[in-house]
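ARCHIVE CARD
CATEGORY: sequence design from structure
SOURCE FIELD: tokenized fold
FIELD CONTENT:
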């Protein structure tokens, strides 16, 4: 489990956690997108987040991080982690996109890509995904 998984499990949006904990939203977004990790946060930040989420500070610090980290940037080397915490409707669309590509049905693929674009914009606006996730997916699926 990672930080974003914990938010989903506890039914928290990034915005709500920020408001209730007093931790800047940018910090919460960085934790969710793995731009930074809870182990790198100061004790006060970890305390505030753990109190709101109802977990111990130790639990937060021990959250599993399964991504290989670039030692220069401290970011994951592979951006595929951005696909791990997507809403169900977007995951479903990605499966349909892949199936259309496998069947070489480019007309259907184009239609589904436009639908994906709309869903991603809505999900970003409702804070279900981050701008990084949206850009990563659009770029990845545009290349196909």
């Amino acid at each position: 489990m990672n930080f974003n998984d914990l938010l989903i499990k506890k039914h928290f949006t990034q915005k709500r956690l920020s408001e209730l904990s007093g931790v800047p939203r940018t910090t919460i977004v960085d934790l969710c997108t793995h731009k930074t990790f809870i182990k790198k946060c100061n004790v006060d930040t970890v305390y505030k987040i753990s109190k709101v989420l109802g977990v111990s500070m130790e639990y937060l610090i021990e959250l599993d991080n399964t991504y290989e980290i670039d030692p220069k940037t401290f970011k994951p080397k592979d951006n595929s982690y951005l696909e791990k915490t997507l809403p169900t409707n977007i995951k479903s669309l990605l499966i349909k996109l892949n199936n259309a590509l496998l069947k070489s049905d480019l007309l259907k693929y184009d239609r589904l890509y436009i639908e994906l674009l709309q869903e991603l914009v809505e999900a970003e606006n409702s804070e279900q995904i981050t701008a990084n996730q949206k850009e990563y997916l659009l770029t990845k699926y545009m290349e196909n």
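CARD ANNOTATION: Helices lie at 3-9, 14-21, 25-32, 43-53, 57-61, 88-102, 106-125, 131-143. The radius of gyration is 17 Å.
SHELF: design records, drawer C
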